Amino acid sequence: MDLLLGIETSCDDTAVAVVGADGKVLSSVIASQISVHSDFGGVVPELASRAHEAVMVPTLEEALRRANLSTTSPGLDAIAVTVGPGLSGPLMVGVATAQALSVAWNVPLIAVNHLEGHIFALGLDTTFPRLPLVVLVVSGGHTMIVGIRELGKYEILGRSYDDAAGEAFDKVARLLGLGFPGGPEIERLGNSGDRGAIKFKQAVTKGKYDFSFSGPKTAVVRYLRENTGFDSADVAASFQESIAQVLARKTIEAAIDFGANSVGLSGGVGANSRLRELLGEIGSRNSIEVFLPARTNCTDNGAMIAEAGRFRLEKFGPTTLPIDVIPSLKFG
Ligand code: KG4
Ligand code: ZN
Questions:
Q1: Residue 264 CB: number of other CB atoms within 10 A?
Q2: Is ligand 1 within 6 A of the CB of residue 141?
Q3: Which atom of ligand 1 is nearest to the CA of 267?
Q4: What percentage of the chain carries pLDDT values higher than 70?
Q5: Domain 4-120+300-316 in CATH: superfamily?
Q6: Measured from the CB, is residue 300 less than 6 Å from ligand 1?
Q7: Fold identical between 4-120+300-316 and 130-292?
Q8: Average pLDDT over the chain, rounded to an integer
């Protein structure tokens, strides 16, 4: 299976990519909806569906063109599409498009779990890390530490039982009057702040590798209320530090317990420089090799869906049509 198309519409990015042999990304186009949702400080599902519909065809054509393929008869080997978890309206746009193309071009279709897609981002433009492996998947909707001894079988070693890490970044950014999505804004502002200025206490969790991010967010609310002359850059840097520290530390500890020699990172928050730096530092101190995909492969994209689709197709064969979206699709 040499040439796969990947379609991802589970949230607010319309993403289409073409991936060649060995996970080589031939094109990856992402139509962002930031301007559609920024006034609301979060993703509005109904607006997202409409925006996906409006840009799907041009995004697809652009992905084919950038990969030097014909837009009418591209000669693909398969099409992979995200079926869940995610927002149902947005997912439907991707799935309807993928099914129509699969029939029109007579190529197999593969249904992909968005979270398995994030795992396969580690195989884009490089060789997939050796197993056993532990991956920190950390995005706007999910925060989990995944243990993998065999591809296709995922053990959830820890997760957040309230807000996802990205969600906490987004909420704190809103408290500081920053734009959406909040993660990159906090990172930018935090660059000029002192990360040791404020100690935001870590939440105590039941499971050793679980997370809680609503506590740190509440700690920021309290700090802002009690310190009227606060320095926003210090708050941003210190909040980012508290989240990055707990994510990196627990992931490396989980990898040691799991007997993994390598750790991977994926999901939008995986673009965060301080998290990347800390994982590398704590990993090397413990002789764990850390794999950091390019930032553009950490955030939602179609290439990771194509790469997960290649694995599924080779191992289990194509998905039978018609396929349904599964907004609350389980993982692990
Ligand atoms: O994986 P993703 O693109 O979409 C979801 O599946 O959620 O992740 C989006 C999340 C948002 O919450 C955003 O604030 C966060 O990733 N994010 C970051 C950074 N870039 C994106 N968080 C911290 N630092 C960043 N540089
Ligand atoms: Zn994602």
A1: 28
A2: yes
A3: 1
A4: 99
A5: ATPase, nucleotide binding domain (3.30.420.40)
A6: yes
A7: yes
A8: 95
For residue range 9-20, what is the model confidence (pLDDT) as tens digits? 999 899 999 999
pLDDT tens string 246-277: 999 999 999 999 999 999 999 999 999 999 99
Residue 3 to residues 88, 267, 311: CA-CA distances in angstroms?
A: 28, 24, 13
Closest alpha carbon to 236 in 183, 295, 180: 183
Whether the predicted pLDDT of 193 surpasses 80: yes
Ligand nearest to the CA of 165: 1
Q: How far apart are CA 240 and CA 232, in angstroms?
A: 12
Q: Does domain 130-292 have CATH number 2.40.110.10?
A: no
The minimum-distance atom of ligand 1 relative to the CA of 180 is 14
| Dist CA 192 CA 185 (whole Å) | 12
Ligand 2 centroid to 230 CA: how many Å?
Answer: 33
Res 1: pLDDT: 66
User: Which atom in ligand 1 lies closest to the alpha carbon of residue 86?
Assistant: 6
pLDDT tens digits, 132-151: 999 999 999 999 999 999 99
Sheet holding 13-19, edge to edge: 25-32, 13-19, 4-8, 78-84, 109-113
The residue behind tokens 């569906």 is 49
* Element (DSSP H or E) covering residue 240: helix 232-258
**Structure letter (DSSP) for residue 236:** H
Q: Measured from the CB, is residue 121 less than 6 Å from ligand 1?
A: no
Say which residue, 36 or 205, is predicted with more confidence.
205
Is 242 a residue whose pLDDT tops 90?
Answer: yes
Question: Which residue, 2, 178, 171, 159, is CA-closest to 74?
Answer: 2
What are the structure tokens assigned to 261, written together?
């020699």
Domains of the chain: which residue ranges? 4-120+300-316, 130-292
The rounded distance, in Å, linking the Cα atoms of 101 and 104 is 5
Question: Ligand 1 pocket, 269 CB below 6 A?
Answer: yes
Beta carbon of 184 within 6 Å of any ligand 1 atom: yes
Phi, psi of 246 (to 5 degrees): -70, -35
